[in-house]
Amino acid sequence: MQGSVERGSLKTYTSGLNKFVEFLSKTKIDVPPPPCSTSAQLRYFISLPGVIESFICFCFQQNLCAKSTGGYIDGLKYFSTDLDGVPFFPREPIISRLLTGFQKMGKRPGPPALGIDVILLRRIMTHVESMHLGADTALWKCMFSIAFFGAFRVSEFLVSDDKLKLLSFNRVRLVANDMVEFVLVKTKNNSSGPAQQVLFAALPGDIACPVRALLTFMSIRAMSSGTQAFFTDRLGYAVTPERFNLVLRRILTSLEVLEPERYTAKSFRVGAASMAYSLNLSVEDIQALGRWASSAFLYYVRSGARAIRVCSIHKKLAAVV
Q1: Could you tell me which residues are beta bridge partners of residue 199?
Q2: What is the CATH architecture assignment of 118-263?
Q3: Is the pTM of this model over 0.70?
Q4: Burial class for 47, CB neighbours closer than 10 Å (0-12, 13-18, 19+)
Q5: Residue 173 backbone phi and psi in degrees, to 5
Q6: What average pLDDT does range 83-105 have in this prediction?
Q7: Which residue from 6, 63, 163, 320 has the least number of CB within 10 angstroms?
Q8: DSSP character at residue 62
Q9: Which residues of the chain does CATH 1.10.150 include?
């Protein structure tokens, strides 16, 4: 049965089951008589009045968000399903209303990440050269450049915990003197389909050129293992989102950029989408840039880019004679 769900979902479901066991250990609920398989025990506990409702309150008290708690509830549904595939989850409407209320009571989300445009990217690249990082200078310049021009999701180029290393060294290759190809075998909106190709073109004379940054970094890492995560430092450690954000914010603080805490690895994808939108690129081009399958890219477009696009449209309208 576990092979029927995605790896990430199964991890969430297992965390939910473990959290439920923790909850039960802190309550005085009798253990059911045999048979005592996991699904049989879960169906017993779930059938008891108030148990699931109390579990949701328990999660709220532990500062878990409504989305995580909902995922845990889905995990209990999954593990309580019997061998015939029939789920067992009474009082579902009540649980749904509880989770909705839970969400409304939760903390308001923080301000959205600010975008990094190509002008700020060039300032970042110049600053990295002055940081005296040795061989890791090429690493950070490469990451910052491809994060922007590839409009990468964080999970597509950084390694987090035990997640699949989507971008490894044997999936990056030079396809022409002025072009480099990345191959992503699994992405957020393409978990089981064919691999996706991401191409980078050379920008001669531009410090932010992704091809030059990639070739420089690849020449340093040429002897590394083909299955190792692509972005690793000179000591062999893969760069995590936490480390990436820490270095980025230190650079932005040095550059005296306002609100550096609002910049993360996501800022490059936000900046790429916002710039493309403000330049009046077609929807198809923007979708191709960030591998969006729908108009979801509009979520990344910030108000400044919308204002620039509107001004451009107004100028075109006024130019008509």
Answers
A1: 181
A2: Orthogonal Bundle (1.10)
A3: no
A4: middle
A5: -150, 155
A6: 66
A7: 320
A8: T
A9: 2-105
